[in-house]
Amino acid sequence: MTTETHHETPSPHEPIELVLARLLRIGSIIAAILLALGIGAMLLGGHAVVGPRLITAGLLALLATPIMRVMVAGVIFAREKDWRFAFFCLVVLCSIVAGILLGHEHGG
Amino acid sequence: MAIGAGIVGSVLGLGGGIIIVPALTILFGVSMRTAVAASTVSIIATSTGAAVAFLRDRLTNTRVAMWLEMGTSAGALSGALIAGYLHQRFLYIMFGLLLAYSGYNMFRTRKAELPGEVVPDRLSRKLNLAGSYYDRMLGRRVEYQVTRTLPGLVLMYFSGAAAGLLGIGAGIFKVPAMDQVMRMPFKASTATSNFMIGVTAASGAVVYFARGDVKPLVAGPVVLGVLLGAVVGARLMVRLKTSTIRKLFIPLIVYTAIEMIYRGVKG
C-alpha cells in the first residue's frame, strides 16, 4: 500500500488533519465499545438498567466528538497564529452553544 | 440496514437519514419523533466514522470546512428559531426546486472527473482555501482551487437553515454547493460535506436528547451499524471513480427533490 508515501512536506507542527483524525477515531472507538457493551448487556438480560445506560453513554460520547473537534481545531489554528481561522472556530462554537441553550428552553 | 445506510452516507457525503427515517418508520413501525432522533445521532456516526479515513487521505479540506461551518451553524440556529413561524409547505417546495436545479446541473457535468481550470476569487486566496489530495483512482495528486467563496458561505447558511427547519442532515445541499458553485473536485466536496455534517447534526441531537426522544433501544443498534458502515464506506469511496459516485448521487438528489416538492404540494 502506498498510503504514507504521498504526504506533504512536514510543517513545524503535526498537520491538523492527522490530529483531528486521531481525535475522531478515539471518539468513535469509545462510542462503539460502549454501544457494543450496552447491546450485549441487553441481549444477555441481567440488569434492565445497565444496557440502556451504557448505550446512552455511548451515544453521548459520539455526540461530544464533533463539538470537541471544533474546539481542538480552534486551538490548533490559534497555536499556529492563524487568528482568522481560530475566530471562525469560535463563531461555530458560539452558535452551537446558543443552539443548545435555545433547545433546552424549547424542549423543556 | 444500518450498515448499508452508513456506507451510502459516507460515500456520498450525506448523513444517511434519507434511508434510516423511512426504514425505521415503515419497516419497524417506530414513531416519527424517535426515528428522526435516531437518524440525527446516526448522522454524527457517519460523519465521525468516515472522517477519519478522509482526513488521513487529505480528501477533507479542513479550512473550507471551518469557513463554511460558520454558515451552516448560523443557519441551523436561525432555522430552529423561525421554524414555528414559517409555512412548511412553502419551504418544502422551495428547497425541492433548489435541489432539482442542482440535480440538473450535476447531470450536465456528470462525465467530468475533475472541475478543470478554476480561477480562485480574492477571498479564497486570502483565506488560503486551495487544496490538494492524492487520488488513488487516477493514480496522481490533484491540485485544486476554490472560487465563489462568499456565495458558498451564503448557500451553506440556507443549507443549515434547511437542516434546522426540516430536520434533515442537509448534506444533499452541501455537496452541490461545493461541487457546482465553489468548483471543488467532487471527492473533496463529499469528504468535506461529510466532515461538516457531524457538527450540524450534533447541535440538533442535543435538543433531541434533552427532550428524551433518543431511545437507546432504537438508536443504539442503528448507530453502531452506521458507525461500522461508515468506516467501510470511506475506504470504498477513495477507490471509486468520481463519475461512479456521481451516478449514485444524481438519482438520490432527484428522488429527494421530488419527495420534497410532493410533500409541499400535498401539505
Model description:
- The complex is a heterodimer of chains A (108) and B (267).
- Helices cover 77% and strands 0% of the residues of chain A.
- With 108 residues, chain A is mainly alpha-helical.
- Chain A has 2 domains: 13-47; 49-103.
- In chain A, helix 1 (16-43) packs antiparallel against helix 2 (50-79) and helix 2 (50-79) packs antiparallel against helix 3.
- In chain A, 36% of the residues are buried.
- Chain B has 267 residues and is mainly α.
- In chain B, a hairpin with a 4-residue loop joins strand 1 (131-135) and strand 2 (140-144).
- In chain B, helix 4 (62-82) packs parallel to helix 9, helix 5 crosses helix 8 and helix 7 packs antiparallel against helix 8 (171-181).
- Classes of the chains: A mainly alpha (108), B mainly alpha (267).
- The interface between A and B is large, with 53 and 52 residues.
Please bin the fraction of helical residues of chain B.
over 70%
- Number of distinct helices of chain B: 11
What low-confidence regions of chain A span 5 or more consecutive residues with pLDDT below 50?
A: 1-8
H/E element order of chain A: HHH
Structural class of chain A: mainly alpha
Main sheet: strands, sense, barrel of chain A? none
